[in-house]
Amino acid sequence: MEAELVLASSPTDAGISCWDLRSGTEHLRFRSCSSPAHGLTSVAGRFLASSQLRDSKSSSGSILYWSWNKPQPEVKSFPTEPINALASNCEGTYMVGGGVSGEIYLWEAATGRLLKKWHAHYRAVTCLVFSDDQSLLISGAEDGSVRVWSLLMIFDDQRREEAKYLYEYSFSEHTLKVTDVAAGYGGCNAIIVSSSEDRTCKVWSLSRGKLLRNIVFPSIIDAVVLDPGEHVFYAGGRDGKIYIAALNAQVNSSSNYGFHIIGSLSEHNKAITCLGLSMDGYLLVSGSEDGMVRVWDTRTRNIFRVFRHAKGPVNNVLVIRQPSHCNPRTSMNFQAFSSRRHVVLPSPLEKYSNSHDDNIDTKACINCQTYNNIADVPYISFQTMQNQIKELQQQGSSAATEMEMERLKLERKRSMQMVQQWKKMYENLHQFCVSELLDGNEHESASRHNIH
User: How far apart, in whole angstroms, are the C-alpha atoms of residue 11 and residue 73?
Assistant: First the structure.
């Protein structure tokens, strides 16, 4: 089983805490971080990035980078406005930030180039998440809307100019601020779950572009996370409870909390602000305003482990694979590791786009697309992204070369999974053909017997 880390940050200047999920060992504590909700991300496991709240009264914000072997931030960027939500695609090719004005910014991680910027919402962007195949970006905002963006469309200037709306879908059934969004598996065929201050969570279909289920909770929900099997999802409430809501699981109509809510976990003294899940889905991690991070066993619904953040409330938790170059905070090992390895971080993120054909003041819009073959969409999108990586390699970027290696590893893993799926399909088909052949022979023998 791969080692996993839990990262936790706070809106106060309490830094970033880091623990091993299963052993509880504390790793290096990163300093000088005051992050907004959904403002902390790991960029392909290579480094940490966080938007900052410290200068929220000023007209500009900042984004900090930390390498895994130093406690203090090493790179500081200054976007044109404060950034709330911050996210990275799984390969670390791109970083996206949601501004307080409703703008979304898309940067190339290796160079810091601002590739695209567009007006996404009427009010501040509160959360950003990529689909599992990285072809779609989903955003939520204070205006109550959830919007779905195709990265292929974002990069296709001609189609942007010809189309009416930039987003693929705009879901506007929430009546108050969207607090979190979680995406399931299946790319363009996935479901997404959104939570809001209107005390509802809504389940949406990306393939049909419509609302599938509306669940009303006893409290405002600030965090949601999907079980890997997508039988249930977990919703963190401001009343200190983590509610378990059914998707495909059996629903008990006599639930004390309401329809589709099949149970709850309750141990925090204050509001639940953030949730995360281990890769196998057996451990649920919750952060709270009480400054505690609790790890739950989803099978027994009991507490597995408790972590204490440095100070102040917790507003972000991440569960990630442990990077190969991340060591526990044992002084001799850490000092030896720091002395022999020099980690080079990317350049700061640009404020403005330097591209001659990209007008940063233009609000680009495109329409919803109907694809003949849904499976083709992520493939085309990946090709567009890979072209950007190749361009970086031609410029001699060491960071891009590292990203290409990570991409190839991920591609190999996906290929092996596809081979296993094809083998299973072949075995099922073979078994079906054998069964049909045997049934046919038995039927023929029986017919001959009746004739005689």
Answer: 16
